[in-house]
Design brief:
By secondary structure, the protein is α/β, with parallel strands linked by helices. It has seven helices and ten strands. The structure holds adenosine-5'-diphosphate (ADP) and magnesium ion.
Length: about 230
């Protein structure tokens, strides 16, 4: 089986003063091309830590990570950022747009970081701004956009390099219910359209239920919700 993202036996602990807390203790997750997966868990259960480890933004204490066929567990090369940009897209609760750049430029910049030529990045960014319904907002600065519009830009940015996987950490966490619903619709639609797998961290049972596979993170391990237990 070919996976776009594989996580094997991930361990992570944090030290705070004399105490050590084991946040992740043996996490396994295998993401297939184009599928949608949700991760739920109490606040502080380690969801963000796990997503950051998957993206190699943070180091694990044990276990292995593959992006597609490539093992990246300990990869330190200067090319990691470019490899990441091409393989993974990320969306965060707080958008993290570059405030000095307009909406279109934010998306173009991500394409440039992924190695695209200027023209290619611009064409691709325009295409995605259309896909997320923001053709009319290309030249707005982030401060001139609503929360939902900022998150649409962030979704466009995450997809500019045609990643195999989009990682979204509570993407609706700062939005009102109606806008959150619209962003959730958008994420599912554009991931399908762009053939990207989606790994969604969310508090919402309703949003989680819209993904094909659902997991809960509890006491440092992942449990699939409603998984078949039969052996055949
Ligand atoms: N850099 C850090 N140093 C120490 N503890 C941390 C650090 N990052 C996260 N933690 C702790 O790890 C646990 C999991 O955090 P996090 O992954 O942010 O949880 P979640 O996203 O599920 O709310 C929490 O107890 C948090 O306090
Ligand atoms: Mg978190």
């Amino acid at each position: 089986m070919h996976y776009v993202l594989s996580v094997d036996d991930i361990q992570k602990r944090f030290r705070s003063g004399p105490r050590e807390i084991q946040v992740l203790q043996g996490i396994h997750l295998y993401v297939r091309p184009g599928e949608s997966i949700s991760l739920r868990g109490a606040s502080g259960s380690g969801k963000t830590t796990l997503l950051n480890i998957m993206a190699r933004m943070e180091d694990a204490d044990g276990g292995t990570i593959h992006w597609g066929e490539r093992e990246v567990t300990a990869q330190r090369s200067s090319r990691l950022a470019r490899v990441r940009a091409r393989h993974l897209g990320m969306v965060f609760q707080s958008y993290y747009l570059v405030p000095e750049l307009n909406a279109l430029q934010n998306v173009v910049l991500a394409g440039r970081i992924g190695g695209m030529k200027r023209k290619e990045a611009l064409d691709r960014a325009r295409e995605l701004m259309g896909l997320v319904g923001l053709d009319e907002r290309e030249h707005h600065l982030p401060t001139q956009l609503s929360g939902g519009e900022r998150q649409r830009v962030a979704v466009a940015r995450a997809l500019v390099n045609r990643p195999d996987v989009l990682l979204a950490d509570e993407p609706t966490g700062n939005l009102d219910e109606t806008t959150g619903d619209l962003i959730m619709d958008l994420l599912l639609k554009v991931c399908q359209d762009q053939q990207a797998a989606l790994v969604l961290v969310t508090h919402s049972r309703v949003f989680a239920a819209r993904t094909e596979r659902q997991y809960e993170l509890h006491a440092g391990t992942l449990h699939e919700v409603g998984a078949e237990t039969s052996e055949d």
